[in-house]
């Protein structure tokens, strides 16, 4: 059964990767770069500072950083443990897939997907009562994850598992932040602003 799932994963990757068109390569290469999203990270910091009082904002910013670090560390640990070769480094695939990047570290799970999903989920949880449009941020991990298949460096299961890990880490960080904000009584006066129970 496991081998069958791996085969389906491989075939789905080949199909999705093969949908790529050369005229869109520059776009997806830009999307897959972490540096492209620096303005988004700055926007997130601005929104946190805008939504919370000074002390609360510092705690939430700490949770924001923790959600990234926890997810990044766990992702690296899983990569080293599973040691799955990236599709771009599989000799049998190199002549049949489009390869736009050539990283050599392990594939499972996708760090791009796990960290972007973790950050987005955490931010949505802490800001959803203040900014109703905040769910739009999920376009970021969606595009980020999709780019990894497009450039030929991740299987679909890498993305799926990465997203799950990201959500789990984000929820843990959210509850940690909620505990400290609640204990220190750092809510804003506006009743729509505090971190509330999920």
Structural summary, described in words:
The protein has 198 residues and is mainly alpha-helical. It is built from seven helices and no strands. The chain crosses the membrane at residues 37-53, 58-78, 105-127, 134-153, 159-177. Residues 59-174 form the Phosphatidic acid phosphatase type 2/haloperoxidase domain.
Compact overview of the structure:
The protein has 198 residues and is an all-alpha fold. It is 63% helix and 0% strand.
Number of strands: 0
Distance N to C terminus: 37 Å
How large a portion of the residues is in β-strands, by DSSP E?
under 5%
Helix- and strand-based class?
mainly alpha
Question: What can be said about the biggest beta sheet?
Answer: none
Shape: elongated
Low-confidence stretches: 183-198
Order of helices and strands: HHHHHHH
Helix content: 55-70%
Number of helices: 7
The whole-number mean of residue pLDDT values reads: 89
Radius of gyration: 19 Å
GO molecular function: undecaprenyl-diphosphatase activity
EC number: 3.6.1.27
Pfam families: PAP2
InterPro entries: PAP2/HPO, PAP2/HPO_sf
How does the SSE layout of this entry go?
Layout: H1 2-18, H2 25-31, H3 38-51, H4 54-82, H5 111-127, H6 139-150, H7 156-184
């Amino acid at each position: 059964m496991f081998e069958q799932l791996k085969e389906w994963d491989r075939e789905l990757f080949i199909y999705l990767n093969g949908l790529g068109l050369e005229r869109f390569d520059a776009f997806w290469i830009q999307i897959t770069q972490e540096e492209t999203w620096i303005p988004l990270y700055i926007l997130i910091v601005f929104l946190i500072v805008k939504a919370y009082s000074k002390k609360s904002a510092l705690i939430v910013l700490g949770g924001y950083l923790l959600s990234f670090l926890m997810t990044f560390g766990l992702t690296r640990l899983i990569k080293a443990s599973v040691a799955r070769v990236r599709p771009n480094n599989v000799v049998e695939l190199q002549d049949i897939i489009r390869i736009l990047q050539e990283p050599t570290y392990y594939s499972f799970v996708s760090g791009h997907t796990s960290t972007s999903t973790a950050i987005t989920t955490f931010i949505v949880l802490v800001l959803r009562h203040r900014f109703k449009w905040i769910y739009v941020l999920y376009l970021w991990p969606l595009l980020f994850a999709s780019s990894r298949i497009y450039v030929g460096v991740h299987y679909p299961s890498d993305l799926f598992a990465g997203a799950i890990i990201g959500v789990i880490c984000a929820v843990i960080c959210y509850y940690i932040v909620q505990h400290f904000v609640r204990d220190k009584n750092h809510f804003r006066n506006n009743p729509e602003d505090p971190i509330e129970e999920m």
